[in-house]
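Q: For a teaching session next week I want to show students how multiple molecules come together into a single three-dimensional assembly. I've collected the sequence lines for a complex. Could you give me the predicted structure tokens for the whole thing so I can convert them for display?
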Amino acid sequence: MGLQGKFSFRPSERLSQDRPRRGGALRTLAVAGVTLTTMALTLVGSGASSAGASGIPTGGTKVSGGTVRWAEPPGTPPTYIFPFMSPQNSSVDNISQFQYLMYRPLYMFGFPSNNKTTLNPTLSLASAPEYSNGDTTATIALKSQYKWSNGEQVTANDVLFFLNMLHAEAPNSNWYDYVPGYIPDNVKSASASSPSSLTMTMTKAVDPTWFTYNQLSQVTPFPAAWDITANGGAPGSGGCSTGTYGAASTDAACTKVWTYLSGLASDPTSYASSPVWGVVDGPYTIAASKGGSFSTSGQVTMVPNSAYTGPQKATITLQQLPFTTDNAEFNSLVGGNLDIGYLPQQDVTQNTTNATSPGPNNPRLSNFYLTPWVLFGFNYAVLKYESTGNNGNAGAEYKQLYIRQAMQSVINQPEMISKFLKGYAVPTYGPVPVLPTNDLVDSYEQQNPYPYNTSHAKSLLTSHGWKNESGVDTCVNAGSGSSQCGAGIPKGAQLNFTMVYASGTQWQQQVMQVEQSAWNSIGIKTALQSQTFPTVLQGYAAPCQSGSPCTGEEGWWGGGWEYSPDYYPSGETLFYTNAGSNAGNYSNAKADSLIAATTNTSTNLDNYQNYIAQQIPVIWEPNADYLLTEVKSTLRGVAPQNPFANLFPEYWYYVKS
Amino acid sequence: MTGFLVRRLLQAVAVIIGVIAFMFILIHLIPGGEARAVLGPRAQPLAIENFDKANGLNLPLWDQFIHYLWNLATFNLGRSYIFNQTVNSLIGTALPKTLVLVGISTVFAAVIAIPLGVYQVVRRNKPEDYIITGFTFVLYAMPAFLLGTLLILWFAIEIPIFPTEAPQSQSIWGILADPRALVLPVITLSAITIASFSRYMRSSMMETMTEDFIRTARAKGAAPRRVLYIHGLRNAIIPIITLLGLSVGTIVSGAVITESVFNYPGMGLLAVNSAFREDIPTLLGVTFVVTIATIIGNLLADILYAVVDPRIRYAKS
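A: Of course. Below is the structure for the complete assembly, covering every listed component.
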């Protein structure tokens, strides 16, 4: 593949075939002169400076209307409109920053005006669910104010429509967040007792907070206009929105409706013209008849839905613009072609002291203010507990808590964040994020259970029968006693691992190099291997299956985990034995019981999170800010930003400059 | 000539199948399978299994390859895992953009570089020759991302006479209707090509002008201009035809760095992004199209040799 014209056309050295000539010195001088002059001009021309603003401006005289040109993150345009999608089409770009603007979820999380991580009662389509019968029944009351753009009410049947489709299609992997055993498997029945009330019965008692935040959070009501199986069908004719939940006939009807709708969604060129997708209940629409547009290259114009009945009608038109790279986006930002963009990490000029508040802005962006966007998530490197690497010893070694503690104790996250990310990252100390500020994280985790302490890390190893031989710790005292190496580790075994990490991001490479050096310094010999992001995902994001080889040892793809739509960080998909996203095959009976308590009973997260933070099932890594958002100085209402990556442009407005 | 063309076409089919087979096997040798890469860390084992089934990835490799070839025969390049579009549609969007940008740049470069190379030979070892050589060395040594970034800085930000981006329209006419936005990316791409073409031209022309037939033409009293352009240029241009023939593949495959800098998602970026995200159908589709373009380019170059140089007789070779 031609990377660039010049590489394909580079001529072979043919100058030697030229005849000898006079004036060689003159020629050399002339060539050198031109070269140096051009390079000097190049360097002179590249200088540019003016002071930038760093605070978030407030006040000003509001101006109604206008257009906001908003930069999509590089290479990630929205591609899928139907809010019932397989894992293949689930992304922040499709869900949080595109679908949610048109099709509001039943329950909205986070706020447009602050970075709280809780349920937003104002923007939710229903009041908070009421739980009864020993927390086995949930009753959902729809708000009367919400209507679809075709004038119809958002009803309980619209919610049932989604639940019926979920029941039919989740087991076929057509729902991105389906986890066997959870919704819809844990819902025994669901019925609309009136247009504004829906009752769900669960198969067993649930923790109300968990069920609302991690199960009902996935529900998006669908309009009756979508309950069709062919173009021009009568609303509701598909039979999915009115069928009995769980009945075979309902499942069959829903599969037909799903087939029709997903077929429509597979043609992005028709999104703006389709009468189906034009029925919205959110503040925005892309309907061409209303002035909206959608191109497959990522250029999207979202216009206010004039029929929106929520608390805040939009006045701003949102233009989403695609970018090939963050450099191209930055040039466009500096050139004044964007109203909201982002500052690439390499263009951050000064440190900040807190990941959620900005340091001084890049001086080339004097017309913008910087506001860091921190998501509710955490970052981690996977340890493969069933690994047969390191001569068959890696898995047994990772199972030893003291080895994991030693590894974690030499990772100085605050230092790395300051040096490599200029302060724009949050350290991870456990499964519940310490930032953005939230009520869920416990003080044990906030205080960092494993502060940087090299000598403590060394002593953990030596006190368990390891001796440094030629730079590598070797087990000299095998056995499972308290001062021995641990079960399954033979005498002579070494602490010699390979960490595979995703290439292409400078700060991640720097973090890996520092960690390699730190681990080597305490005798845990670590080799680094960089591979592409998909390759690391393939090798390290999935649990090893029994019967298949499990040779990988440690892996870090760098992306971590964002809690959405599992807004309650209870860990059932991450750390529960045999959970689908338990990539390291971590298994701990006490952790399982604590996780079960958070999902099945009204138990807060403290016991679970403190135990997991203390147990270190994965290596906690720095979690970089999602984006360093740059907002035009005359634009208000953008910051602080939603910790689940949602956009609320209906709250944005310009002020007179 | 007909026999030559038939032979070359048969060779072309073999080359295409060979390249596709090589790529197909190479890509599928990546350990782990593409399902996890596409579906992400949240995907449950069942989702992985269903993805493999839906995309035929659970079949033996030879079976997958036969299916792929069968689809290729009907120009069905498959469906992208990432972009929710057919590969035909993705290429149909990216290819015209690349053809416009790289095509204009290549033509522009050839139009500038050929006379420049000839001029340098005419003014050989004079200050003009040295100055042009110096400039071409600078251009040739300069990475495209640096030149592109500097041009944006100078002529789109400091002196805002051009936009920071290439045209953002999806249609060829829309792109051509915004010539101002094409200026900087075309200069970026063609500057480097001018440097290499003109060096080739100068060298080839210099060699040709020392040949016996040039001396004979001069001895026969031919005018210097005729000697230069009719006898010299016609013979010296063959290496440039080779370069132009080879550049057809590049024109189709795009210029990923220039496309990146100027926010112009063409074939180069499509290939790179699909490789990074393991969007295998797209990657194979782009490879297929570029292979065909490269073969056509070489074929055209061979035909042009015969047109330019009558001594070349393909029919008897």
